[in-house]
Amino acid sequence: MQDMYWYKKIWSLDIKNNTWVEDTENQVDFIIKTLGLNGSERIFDLACGFGRHSLSLARRGFTVVGVDITKDFVEDAAQAAKENALDAEFIHSDIRDLPFKNEFDVALNLADGAIGYLETDEENLKIFDVIAHALKPGGKHFMDVCNAEHAELYFPKRHWQIGKKEIALAEFDWIPETRRMLYGGGNIEFGKTARKPDIVPSNPTRLYSRAELSVIFERRGMEIISAYSDYYGKPDSNKELQLIVYSRKK
């Protein structure tokens, strides 16, 4: 039986060494360009992890509030902000418990941003409620998730990525009845004796298509402006696993 509360338990600061962290600055560049930000915006980073995007944005002059359920992440990010005198605040909380109302110009859910992680469809939709409530009228939202249409067509599948320090390996499976992805990952580090990683797909995550997201946002007074399949502006497609969506509160 899959653990429906996995998202509270699995995270550690070891993820700082993962290959996907290497693209952080390019991702922030793309976000600023796509959303047309000028540096004056107050930004809300949901499920911010150890704050890699929040800290990058704060270094560029933005005011940032990040939130994450993992205490070690929040403490590490807050320490980094303090050491570098950055305008970034980090909150240790479940996203569902956040009280913000019409306070932010931009909200982010990056590297999933906990979208789809929660126990039921009803609980997952609460994250979209938090997004809509937190944004000012005209506020912008940017999310980076996995594409349900791709999962339906191409899962199960394997994926690998070469980084500067390691090769990252992943396996994906699909539960069509609940529209949940199962993911398992492992790494082979360069310069060390290679060991076979133990990869078992788990961590059930509810995925969404662009069409589903359009309905979800519309019901919350928001609209999708554009969608992509990578951080270089490639149009979204069911042939691609990544789904990046830029939306705006009406």
Write the layout of secondary structure elements.
Elements: H1 24-35, E1 42-46, H2 52-59, E2 63-68, H3 71-83, E3 88-92, E4 104-109, H4 121-134, E5 135-146, H5 148-154, E6 157-162, E7 166-175, E8 180-189, E9 202-206, H6 210-218, E10 222-228, E11 242-249
Parallel strand pairs: 1-2, 1-4, 2-3, 4-5
Antiparallel strand pairs: 5-11, 6-7, 7-8, 8-9, 10-11
Helix pairs in contact: 1-2
Q: How would you characterize this protein structure?
A:
The chain has helices at about 25-35, 50-60, 70-85, 120-135, 150-155, 210-220, and strands spanning about 40-45, 65-70, 90, 105-110, 135-145, 155-160, 165-175, 180-190, 200-205, 220-230, 240-250. With about 250 residues, it is an alpha/beta fold. It folds into two domains: about 5-150 and about 210-250, Vaccinia Virus protein VP39 (Rossmann fold); about 150-205. Helix 1 (about 25-35) packs across helix 2 (about 50-60). The N and C termini lie far apart (about 40 Å).
Which short descriptors sum up this protein?
single chain, about 250 residues, alpha/beta, Rossmann fold, 2 domains, 7-stranded mixed β-sheet, 11 strands
CATH fold annotation of the largest domain: Rossmann fold
Assembly classification:
single chain
**Average pLDDT over all residues:** 94
Shape: globular
Low-confidence stretches: none
- CA radius of gyration: 18 Å
Query: How many helices in DSSP terms?
Result: 6
Sheet-strand content, in percent, reads 25-35%
Helix content: 25-40%
